[in-house]
Design goal:
By secondary structure, the protein is α/β, with parallel strands linked by helices. It contains nine helices and twelve strands. Helix content is 38%, strand content 26%. The model has no long low-confidence stretch (mean pLDDT 95). It binds adenosine-5'-diphosphate and magnesium ion (MG).
Length: 253
């Protein structure tokens, strides 16, 4: 089976600062892949590379069998045009720590926006799907609310619905619950659990070790731009092999 995401020796630097120092990993279709590690270890940078927000400096990164950001001809690589990058990005949904909904639009309009603007969908079709998605994240009754009239957890669930509206084949979550009050975290994790049960391929950067253990199919511990340890969440989280993993887990568990 083809990997949904495959990284081979992925390097990324900002100027002289090396952030990713050779990441190798594979995410299978329908897998829930949790990425953990201390702040500054390169987790967000790696997601941004997958989502075409950054270009890798060396190594190869593939999404669904296609090289990210480049086209290969013979043994030469050519950078993709912006229009080609935009087309590839459509298939990847991303949810950030900050929900960044459009503040002047209702929840419903936020979820309808991309399919209309990017795919040229009709309002009727976009509205029908958006209502289904709001229902799926438990917010059908808040469709007419503006972001300022929603809690952080509700806004984050709208952000998930908005990402799903583009019918992505891969969802990236970058600490989706880190900015939430503790009592609002559970509802967001429940939505993510539901997505996982429906077979969505997900890469989740999180400090929620309970989620990683219960929902994750694999977990990768990253530190200082390298993968230190990876495997089944129950093994890695309960029986870490490396000192750096042990030290990290002793702080977050
Ligand atoms: P994490 O998400 O694991 O906390 P990041 O990927 O955000 O880590 O950051 C990894 C390192 O890369 C940090 O040292 C950060 O300062 C650096 N970094 C991230 N983005 C940039 C940027 N645009 N320019 C320069 N340095 C950056
Ligand atoms: Mg980060």
């Amino acid at each position: 089976m083809n990997a949904m995401v495959k990284a081979e020796g992925v390097h990324k630097s900002y100027g002289a600062v090396q952030v990713l120092k050779g990441i190798d990993l594979e995410v299978a279709p329908r897998e829930v892949f949790c990425l953990i590690g201390p702040s500054g270890s390169g987790k967000s940078t790696f997601l941004r590379c997958i989502n075409h927000l950054e270009k890798v400096n060396a190594g190869r990164l593939y999404v669904d069998g296609e090289l990210v950001g480049y086209r290969q001809k013979g043994d030469r690589l050519y950078e993709l045009k912006d229009s080609e990058v935009a087309r590839n990005r459509r298939d990847i949904g991303m949810v950030f720590q900050r929900f960044n909904l459009f503040p002047h639009m209702t929840a419903l309009a936020n979820v309808m926006e991309a399919p209309i603007q990017v795919k040229g969908e009709t309002k009727a079709v976009a509205r029908e799907r958006a209502m289904k998605l709001l229902d799926r994240v438990g917010l059908a009754d808040k469709a007419g609310n503006y972001p300022s009239q929603l809690s952080g957890g509700q806004q984050q669930r709208v952000a998930i619905a908005r990402a799903l509206a583009m019918e992505p084949k891969l969802m990236l979550f970058d600490e989706p619950t880190s900015a939430l009050d503790p009592e609002l975290v559970g509802d967001v994790l429940d939505v993510m659990r539901g997505l996982a049960e429906d077979g969505m391929t997900m890469i989740v950067v999180t400090h929620e070790m309970g989620f990683a253990r219960e929902v994750g199919d694999s977990v990768v511990f990253m530190d200082q731009g390298v993968v230190v340890e990876s495997g089944n969440p129950r093994d890695v989280l309960t029986n870490p092999q490396h000192d750096r993993t042990k030290a990290f887990l002793s702080k977050v568990l």
